[in-house]
């Protein structure tokens, strides 16, 4: 930036736009990007809310056991697609890939709306997940080219409000659509939003094609990690079943582990890896990648366990659950507002990262200690703290990861970081669900209650009373405590990683007095040679949410 420029020009120089882009185009793109963000955030909660109607229509007998795969199929497809989106973005440019992801999501939504059986719906949810996996990542990548770090930090509150709104609005919207019209409307509602977002992005976004040679796509690597993750998730899911056999647990687990190892070997030996293992040479990514995995595992999965906990332990109706979810949503919005302002004023990521991980660990531990008859105000206070963790940890970690990344590798590093988060969320939902079901069945062993898994729990609670109901509630409380304790232990490891990671300072104040790098680690730049490339306003981190 030219130090002699007038104040008005100085502000404009702090926000250089790519050729062909204007402030109006940026605004229109931002609206389209937020629409895609809402789609991605609403998708899982709105589907879960329509479970009774979906099961009644497609598989009234025995379909409960298949329903979790509607969530797992989506998450698995989205997880597997993450590295592909990063490489495609670096090769072809983010606009094409963004629109392609949106088109695939739209196709998946249409197919889901016309599904005639549970297997069809599960398969079509996987198609939807392939597109959904790119909505957040591509939005983050494009926003990083349009906004300098200061504006991305200041605007973080908008992303937090969107997450909070989606968390609160998803369940009642899904229930209302399925009750008032049909469960198919939870997918029909995606269509006008997808079309509107597609038109806005296609007409407004103007980005130059990427420079340099295009790199090949490691489709074999993508197949290996997809199959490996599927095997591990299946093993984790089977571990929570009350009557699982040894072969049903060990075979998919062993196959999944072997394929995952094969994927790592493939990335280390192929000329064009899907996720280059060289990214782990960066000391920032090396610590924040496992932290993001833990965040997905132990935090992003907790809201669904909290909802079920409120339904069982407190006997809340669906409407009452939403009332208690509002405090968690407030915590999410608060942390985005606060950390965006802190980043804009200080340019430092680490203090916020350490603070949010500490609060998360304390909130999860506190949730495990809550008695069944906890005062509602105390419970809501705990949920506010939990919302701070859900909204803060992975988002701040992603910001810091991108801030340390060289511009030419933004796509790969962004999607690698999101891959860690989404993989953690998929594994966490399976593992924590297995812990919940196992502890629940163990607490009821030797009794005549009969409900030994979560699938049968709600049916028994509808008819049980007196000592039988008390036994069910206390057993489920003990199982939920095990989930919260496991999450607290995992987050404690994240606290250690947050303390050890090197601070990332984003150039947000007096840019003339600093070097032209938009962001740089505290430690000498020689430790991370790739990060030394000047990047005044390209390929930097985005503070938008990525749940």
From TrEMBL:
Transmembrane region(s): 26-47, 67-85, 97-116, 122-147, 154-173, 185-205, 217-236, 248-266, 287-309, 321-340, 352-372, 378-400, 412-436, 482-501
Ligase listed as a keyword: no
Listed GO MF terms: transmembrane transporter activity
Domain Major facilitator superfamily (MFS) profile intervals: 29-505
InterPro entries assigned to the protein according to its UniProt record, in alphabetical order: MFS, MFS_dom, MFS_trans_sf
Lineage: superkingdom: Bacteria
UniProt entry tagged with the keyword Mitochondrion: no
Cross-referenced Pfam families: MFS_1
Biased composition range(s): Low complexity: 521-547
Topology with respect to the bilayer: Multi-pass membrane protein
Similarity section: Belongs to the major facilitator superfamily. TCR/Tet family.
Name the UniProt record assigns to this protein: MFS transporter
Species this chain originates from: Actinomadura montaniterrae
Classification of source organism: Bacteria, Bacillati, Actinomycetota, Actinomycetes, Streptosporangiales
């Amino acid at each position: 930036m030219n130090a002699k420029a007038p104040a008005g020009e100085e502000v404009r120089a702090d926000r250089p736009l790519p050729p062909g882009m204007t402030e109006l185009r940026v605004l229109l793109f931002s609206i389209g990007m937020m629409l895609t963000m809402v789609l991605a955030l609403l998708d899982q909660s709105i589907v879960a809310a329509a479970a009774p109607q979906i099961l009644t229509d497609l598989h009234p007998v025995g379909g409960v056991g298949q329903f979790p795969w509607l969530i797992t199929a989506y998450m698995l497809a989205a997880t597997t697609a993450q590295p592909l989106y990063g490489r495609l973005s670096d090769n072809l440019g983010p606009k094409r890939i963004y629109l392609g992801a949106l088109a695939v999501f739209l196709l998946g939504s249409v197919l889901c709306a016309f599904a005639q059986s549970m297997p069809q719906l599960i398969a079509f949810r996987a198609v939807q997940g392939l597109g959904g996996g790119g909505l957040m990542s591509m939005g983050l990548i494009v926003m990083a080219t349009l906004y300098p770090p200061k504006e991305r930090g200041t605007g973080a509150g908008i992303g937090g409000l969107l997450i909070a709104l989606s968390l609160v609005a998803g369940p009642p919207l899904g229930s209302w659509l399925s009750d008032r019209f049909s469960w198919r409307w939870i997918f029909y509602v995606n269509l006008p939003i997808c079309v509107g977002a597609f038109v806005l992005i296609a007409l407004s976004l103007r980005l130059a094609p990427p420079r340099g040679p295009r790199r090949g796509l490691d489709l074999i690597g993508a197949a290996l990690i997809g199959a490996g993750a599927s095997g591990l998730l299946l093993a984790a899911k089977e571990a929570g079943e009350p009557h699982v056999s040894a072969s049903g647990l060990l075979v998919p687990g062993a196959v999944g582990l072997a394929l995952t190892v094969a994927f790592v070997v493939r990335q280390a030996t192929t000329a064009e890896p899907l996720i280059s293992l060289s990214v782990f040479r960066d000391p920032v990514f090396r610590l924040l990648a496992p932290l993001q995995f833990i965040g997905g595992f132990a935090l992003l999965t907790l809201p669904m366990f909290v909802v079920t906990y409120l339904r069982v332990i407190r006997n809340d109706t669906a409407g009452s659950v939403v009332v208690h979810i509002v405090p968690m949503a407030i915590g999410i919005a608060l942390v985005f507002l606060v950390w965006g302002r802190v980043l804009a004023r200080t340019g430092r990521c680490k203090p916020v990262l350490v603070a949010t991980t500490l609060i998360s660990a304390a909130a999860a531990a506190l949730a495990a200690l809550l008695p069944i008859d906890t005062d509602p105000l105390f419970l809501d206070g705990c949920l506010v703290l939990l919302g701070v963790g859900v909204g803060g940890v992975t988002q701040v970690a992603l910001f810091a990861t991108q801030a340390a990344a060289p511009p030419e590798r933004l796509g790969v590093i962004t999607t690698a970081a999101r891959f860690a988060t989404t993989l953690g969320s998929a594994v966490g939902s399976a593992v924590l669900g297995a812990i919940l079901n196992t502890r629940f069945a163990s607490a009821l062993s030797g009794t005549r209650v009969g409900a030994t898994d979560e699938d049968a729990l709600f049916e028994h609670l509808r008819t049980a009373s007196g000592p039988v109901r008390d036994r069910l509630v206390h057993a489920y409380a003990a199982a939920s405590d095990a989930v919260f304790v496991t999450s607290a232990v995992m987050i404690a490891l994240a606290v250690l990683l947050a303390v050890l990671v090197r601070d990332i300072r984003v150039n947000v104040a007096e840019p003339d007095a600093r070097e032209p790098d938009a962001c740089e680690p505290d430690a000498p730049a020689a430790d991370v040679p790739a990060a030394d490339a000047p990047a005044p306003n390209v390929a930097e981190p985005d503070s938008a949410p990525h749940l």
